[in-house]
Design a protein that fits this description.
Elements: H1 3-19, H2 22-25, E1 29-34, H3 45-51, E2 54-57, H4 63-66, H5 76-87, E3 91-99, E4 111-112, E5 115-116, H6 119-136, E6 143-148, H7 162-167, H8 170-182, E7 187-192, H9 200-213, E8 220-223, E9 226-228, H10 234-246, E10 250-259, H11 274-277, H12 289-308, E11 313-319, H13 350-365
Parallel strand pairs: 1-2, 1-11, 2-3, 3-6, 6-7, 7-8, 8-10, 9-10, 10-11
Antiparallel strand pairs: 4-5
Helix pairs in contact: 1-13, 6-8, 12-13
The protein binds (3S,4R)-3-hydroxy-2-oxopiperidin-4-yl beta-D-xylopyranoside.
């Protein structure tokens, strides 16, 4: 190739990479989970609207926030969030209608006086909850995480909870039916974590087959995508994308981040490392360049995989706007974390450049 041609190719690639934001470069919708107080944080708005088209409220639309007790509905923050997003032309993903976990379900759902609620009572409460919430935001919320985290991690097909104890599996299909009846045009998502991994994937596929047999209106599968550096499960993820493509199911990546401080030991060996782990906080003064570079490569590899399945992927949402707002600064223990594409000042990190390059230069090469 002549030098001039080489220079032109270089400039073209540089142009593609620089000129585009995530929102412009993505072949799917580009989303982000946001602190509930975003309407009061104008400093965050330019970054938000340049990079993202879809927003998920981090906490204020969860059952625990909307209706902690049977008497007390609390719509203030959710109303403000939805009005703010609508005013900025951002599509809202409501999260979540049923979080099938005991510590995430307000206690009143399960109780009938001193006794556990019967199946009928629990399902009637779920129905009225879903009708009220989805009905209130009809036409203003584009998609709902209808059921979150219902699959079992261990031997059981489903996570055991007050939901399964009272209602077996029926609550899942019914939650989708009620949500669909309340807003027939909303996209309805089954969302979970680790559901791309071997074992849990099979449970998910079996659940989806049963839901389909019941004609439950499940439109999309959500993969939360909370990954750790050096442990991104590319192979399992690819198998999952192939399997979901095979059954004609679309995928949304709902809560993406790549933790730079490995955390799995927190749960290992019957939790016996927790006291030691709670002291691990290596990047208080900033994340070393070599770690940022590794994170960038791993994000790029992930987005290369997503691109390969862009016919299946409908949206990729990060969980939080920038490193300073990430939930991983507090979960599962307090530490200074750096899992996202933007740093604490909202400036793009090497991972941002790597992802946009993958979505532009990579796509232009048709790889
Ligand atoms: C997290 C929030 O980010 C935290 O602020 C909150 O304390 C706990 O929940 N999977 C989910 C999200 O579906 O709702 C969780 O969000 C992160 C894991």
């Amino acid at each position: 190739m002549s030098r001039v041609l080489l220079l032109l190719v270089f400039l073209f690639h540089a142009y593609l990479g620089m000129a585009q934001t995530l929102r412009q470069a993505s072949p799917w919708s580009s989303g982000v989970g946001l602190a509930d107080r975003i309407p009061d944080r104008p400093a965050d708005w330019p970054l938000l609207t340049a990079q993202f088209s879809h927003v998920t409220p981090e906490n204020c639309m969860k059952p625990d926030a909307l209706r902690r007790t049977e008497q007390a509905w609390n719509f203030n923050q959710a109303d403000n969030f939805v009005a703010f997003a609508n005013s900025k032309d951002l599509k809202v993903v409501g999260h979540c209608l049923v979080w099938a976990k005991d510590d995430r379900t307000p206690a009143w759902f399960y109780q009938d006086g001193a006794a556990p609620a019967s199946k009928e009572v629990l399902l009637a409460r779920m129905k009225s909850y879903i009708e009220t919430v989805v009905g209130r935001y009809k036409g203003k919320v584009a998609a709902w995480d209808v059921v979150n985290e219902a699959l079992g991690d261990g031997k059981t097909e489903l996570r055991e909870s007050g939901w399964t104890r009272a209602a077996g599996e029926d609550f899942i299909a019914l939650a989708f039916e009620y949500a669909h009846a309340a807003d027939p045009s909303a996209q309805l998502i089954y969302n979970d974590y680790n559901n791309e991994l071997d074992g849990k994937r099979e449970k998910m596929l079996a659940l989806l087959a049963r839901l389909k047999a019941r004609q439950a209106p499940v439109h999309v599968v959500g993969l939360q995508g909370h990954y750790e550096i050096d442990r991104v499960p590319y192979e399992a993820l690819e198998k999952t994308l192939i399997a979901l493509r095979g059954i004609g199911m679309k995928v949304v990546v709902t809560e993406l981040d790549i933790d730079v401080i490995p955390r799995s030991r927190w749960w290992a060996d019957a939790n016996k490392h927790r006291a030691e782990m709670a002291k691990v906080n290596p990047y208080v003064d900033g994340c070393p360049p070599e770690i940022l570079a590794r994170q960038a490569e791993q994000y790029a590899q992930l987005f290369r995989l997503f691109r390969k399945y862009d016919d299946v992927i409908d949206r990729v949402s990060f969980w939080n706007l920038h490193d300073g707002q990430s939930w991983l600064n507090n979960f599962p223990w307090k530490r200074v974390n750096h899992p996202l594409l933007f740093d604490r000042q909202g400036n793009p990190k090497p991972a941002y450049d790597a992802v946009v390059k993958e979505l532009t230069v990579g796509a232009a090469k048709g790889k």
